[in-house]
Amino acid sequence: MDKVFVDPPIAEILSLLTSQGLTTEDLSERGEMCFFGFGQPGCVRGVVGLEVHGRFGLLRSLAVSKDFQRKGTATILVNTLEIHAHKVGITELYLLTETAQIYFSHRGFSVIPRELVPREIRETHQFSSLCPDSATLMRKRL
Questions:
Q1: Domain that residue 85 falls in
Q2: Contacts of 68 (CB under 8 A, 6+ apart)
Q3: Strand partners, 142
Q4: pLDDT tens readout for residues 70-105
Q5: CA 78, chain centre distance (Å)
Q6: What is the pTM of this model?
Q7: Does residue 46 sit in helix, strand or coil?
Q8: Cα distance between residue 53 and residue 96, in whole Å
Q9: I want to staple 44 with a disulfide (CB 3.0 to 4.6 A). Which of 37, 60, 81, 122 is the partner?
Q10: Total domain count for the chain?
């Protein structure tokens, strides 16, 4: 039975992210990043990552395999991430997206100008170099 689990194998994370066209350049330096997987070890159907920077979090790399899209998998993963973020003291969750602004708007995220981003998020690889300036920046207060 498929379920959410912590820290799926990095090879499975990379494979799923690559299949969805998402960047994987900085994932070998996981540092303060954790991933949640959906499926079973050895058969990951979806992933989402969280970078922790004090009281701020950066939602990273939400990807769901094509055969599990539109079945609630992304919602399960994001709910799990938000619960975990709240438990570890994160009060604001940020993300950058080029394709999922509507999805995240329905989940309570709001578009914000880049100049309002705290330094801790602004200095991440994701924000400073990996995502293009055209990516939409969103925030949710937990």
A1: 3-141
A2: 38, 39, 45, 46
A3: none
A4: 899 999 999 999 999 999 999 999 999 998 999 999
A5: 8
A6: 0.91
A7: strand
A8: 16
A9: 37
A10: 1
